[in-house]
Amino acid sequence: MKNIVLIGMPGAGKSTIGVILAKSLLFDFCDTDLSIQKETGESLCDTISKIGIAGFIQLEENVICQQDFSASVIATGGSAVYGEKAMAKLKENGIVVYLKVSPEELQNRIKNIHTRGIAMKEGTTIFELYDERAPFYEKYADITIECDGRNAEECVDLIVKMVKVKYE
Fold first, then answer.
1. Residue 82 near residue 57 (C-beta atoms within 8 A)
2. 73, 159 Cβ separation under 8 angstroms
């Protein structure tokens, strides 16, 4: 049974959709941001402040590569796509689903951009971060789900349908 790996921008709904998707498929659920927090014993924001963006991306990759996933929905951090080894591991036994949300919608959703623990340079806008990361999301995605105008349950239904069509 392949894992389902959710990638996308912060605020795309990876964690929310991931929990609902895992319940509907009777899969385990892993949020890699929570795995990082468990490993460090601190918030993502504090970790990024302490070790910098490059250090955080390396830590994220290490944490993902150390885990064994089986019949799981994996909600990655938005920056996981910067780690080639991590993405290779996730794709080994996983279907990568890109939860695509427009930068305009993300700006409406994210209210705590400075305390959320997003790996982004100071002064960077959501629009700039989207432009930087979108090519990575598109590169790794096996399936892309357009999430604008859809609630979490609608996205889950669409993921289940698209996975069945493509992989059964």
1. yes
2. no
Mean pLDDT by 10 residues, the chain (168 residues): 94 96 96 96 93 95 96 96 97 96 88 69 87 97 95 96 83
Please give the Cα distance from 66 to 156 (Å, whole number).
Answer: 27
Distance CA 74, CA 68 (A): 11
Give the chain's length.
168
pLDDT attached to residue 148: 94
Report whether 34 contacts 119 (CB < 8 A).
Answer: no
What's the pLDDT at 168? 67
Q: Which of 59, 29, 30, 64 is nearest to 44 (CA)?
A: 59
Q: pLDDT value at position 114?
A: 59
Residue 137: closest CA among 85, 101, 94, 92: 101
* Token digits of residue 97: 């689903």
- Residue 10: name the closest of 97, 96, 112 by CA: 112
